[in-house]
Structure prediction request, 273 residues.
Amino acid sequence: MRIGLPSVAMIISGLLFVAYFTMQGPFGAAVLAETAEEAGVRITTKHRDSERGFVNYEASLTMVLKNKRGQKSNREMRFKVIEVDGEGNRSLFVFDRPQDVKGTAFMVHSHRTKPDDQWLYLPALKRVKRISSANQSGSFVGSEFSYEDLGSLEVEKYRHKYLRDESCGNTSCHVVEMTPKNKKSGYSRQLIWFDKKLFRIMQVQYFDKKNEHLKTMVQENHKKYTGNQWRASKVTMQNHLTGKSTVLNWSDFKFGTDLDLKDFTKNALKRVR
Prediction:
């Protein structure tokens, strides 16, 4: 049976209708059809690209440790970070107070694909201790942050899957599941909430090797600095299994300082004050 002209028109119209709706991606605009995995990579890459271009900066922060009974203790430190072309960032934490941790320093060389290189300088021992990749799931100086949490987020180290869009606070977010490729990671997976407009991280849920919800990190009070650089002023990590939490209060951001790569070597770590 021949198909008449009206039937052909209806078929073409139907195909266009289907094509339009299959091209709707998680960004709300028509894009080529993509898998949940491709969408997850796209969103996480957008976040990484939004974080680039700062060159280097320094900041101050106060770490507030809170136990399950609500008792608190404070630590003060300085933070320095520099971008490295083709690699992850290099960063340095230096403790100033209280006296029992003064001079302790922690350095990270983040990498795109392989595990980060990490070192801890202990002034009492006057030695630099390397943190092996197998031990990076351990607690960072008694806080609810692990050593693993302190490197830069590198897209290539994870498998990604876009899950959904939903409201988060006063904005709307993409929710992406990230599964670490490193078998020595302390996490089975992470769920990350990226705000849809600027791709800032608003919340991260961490799941342990038993796939239990171990911790939640919330980033708040974002402020815009040089160029299009946004940084959270308050970062809270809540441990759901222990009832403990750690808050990082960030301040005094200074971009474009005189830092260079020589400030992020093992020898420099020994001299840091």
Observations:
- The first helix runs from residue 5 to 22.
